[in-house]
């Protein structure tokens, strides 16, 4: 049994504001330990449940945040940027039985601690075939295309509610309760580690590959907070404006859909000016 852990940071224990997740800041350095604790708890739980291999894919910002030296020696970690499937790199190889979303968060334009979708700001909403989409929903759709179920989701309480929509059978752990985008009632690392480990142990029962879901075509709509960002996104082939601040594109598969989304966000991030956005 092989488990892939997609590890993001905004939904980690103790994280509540931008400095907690911005590489290079003192707060980020402090929160790296709690982020690593969450991920390691999931690793321990999966091995407790009978997994033979656990691979962690770093999925936050520079994708160089976790402390490798603090992870269980049996685990392996893919760290660094520029991967074909970004946050769920590795799911496409046909040998993954289940995927866990650890440290996840809600989507752009919705309530939740540090809620966003790929870009920290600029995007105000994403829709997949008409459904409001978080990173969790987008990545779950990619995983489904390879027959891999989402078996565990951790983050704030609203992230767990979001997961019920795209992975209703998955085990969930709320490591904090949302108060505002930059505030939460947080549980201690010792408590969240125990909760995550127990949930991961149970989640291994769900790690069974199924028939790939060929649900295409997939239409993705993205809304921005400024008109010029929608214009900038149209340099990506197949992307067209469908409103003053909104673009859309259609892909035959989610493999292509998530790669186009990554291209759009990369182009848009380069079009944001420091003071005026």
Strand count = 12
Query: Nearest-angstrom radius of gyration?
Result: 18 Å
As a percent range, the share of strand residues is: 15-25%
Largest sheet, order of strands side by side? 3-2-1-4-7-8-9
Number of helices: 6
The SSE string, one letter per element, is EHEEEEEHEHEEHEHEEH
Mean pLDDT: 98
The secondary-structure class comes to alpha/beta
Distance between the termini: 46 Å
Describe the main β-sheet briefly: 7 strands, mixed
Unreliable spans are: none
The best one-word shape is: globular
- Give helix % range: 25-40%
Task: Indicate the topology.
Blueprint: E1 2-7, H1 26-48, E2 53-58, E3 76-78, E4 98-102, E5 123-128, E6 131-132, H2 135-145, E7 150-156, H3 157-166, E8 171-180, E9 183-186, H4 189-203, E10 218-224, H5 227-233, E11 240-243, E12 246-251, H6 254-270
Parallel strand pairs: 1-2, 1-4, 2-3, 4-7, 7-8
Antiparallel strand pairs: 5-6, 5-10, 8-9, 10-12, 11-12
């Amino acid at each position: 049994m092989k488990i892939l852990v997609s590890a993001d940071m905004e939904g980690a224990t103790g994280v509540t504001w931008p400095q907690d997740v911005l590489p290079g800041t003192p707060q980020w350095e402090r929160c790296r330990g709690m982020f690593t604790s969450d991920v390691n708890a999931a690793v321990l739980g999966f091995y407790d449940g009978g997994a033979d291999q656990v691979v962690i894919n770093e999925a936050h910002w520079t994708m160089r945040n976790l402390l490798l030296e603090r992870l269980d020696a049996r685990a392996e970690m893919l760290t660094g940027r520029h991967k074909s499937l970004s946050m769920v790199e590795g799911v496409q190889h046909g040998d993954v039985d289940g995927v866990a979303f650890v440290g996840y968060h809600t989507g752009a334009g919705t309530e939740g601690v540090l809620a966003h979708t790929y870009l920290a700001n600029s995007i105000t909403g994403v829709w997949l075939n008409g459904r409001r989409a978080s990173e969790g929903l987008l990545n779950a759709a990619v995983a489904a295309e390879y027959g891999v179920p989402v078996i565990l989701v951790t983050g704030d309480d609203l992230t767990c509610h979001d997961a019920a929509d795209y992975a209703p059978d998955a085990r969930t752990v709320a490591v904090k309760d949302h108060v505002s985008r930059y505030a939460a009632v947080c549980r201690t690392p010792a408590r969240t580690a125990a909760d995550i480990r127990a949930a991961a142990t149970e989640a291994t029962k769900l790690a069974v590959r199924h028939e790939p879901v060929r649900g295409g075509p997939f239409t993705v709509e993205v809304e921005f907070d400024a008109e010029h960002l929608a214009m900038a996104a149209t340099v990506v082939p197949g992307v067209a404006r469908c409103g003053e601040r909104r673009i859309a594109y259609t892909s035959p598969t989610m493999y292509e859909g998530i790669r186009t989304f990554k291209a759009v966000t990369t182009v848009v991030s380069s079009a944001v000016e420091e003071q005026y956005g």
